Amino acid sequence: MSEFITVITETEVEDRRQRRLDNYEHFRSGKRGQPPMVNRLAFVTVYVDHLVREGVPLETTHNSEMNKRVLAWLNGKAVVSKDHRKSRRKQITPDAVQSLLKQVQSER
After folding, report:
1. Which residues of the chain are under the pLDDT cut of 50?
2. Disulfide check for 60: which of 28, 39, 99, 101 has CB 3.0–4.6 Å away?
3. Alpha-carbon span 106 to 103, nearest angstrom
4. Angle at 53 between CA 9 and CA 100, to 5 degrees
């Protein structure tokens, strides 16, 4: 059974986030290597908003509660991913989550 997470934000905030993700994806297109995981950043943004509304403080350190919960959530999603590329299924580290959380924090 899937778990749905929704977050209600203002239209301006959602539009600004979408423009930023579109710009990031457009900037990286046409370059060599693995395409950026823009979807992961978008999902993490929604999940972080959900956790903040639950009362978890937005901290980006390795041992923070936010980092641990996002790490567990992303690794759980990677296990059941239908994408068969190794880079999309492997377990990520707290460093990778810290980088994602810093990007989310810079959006706020």
Report:
1. 1
2. 101
3. 5
4. 80
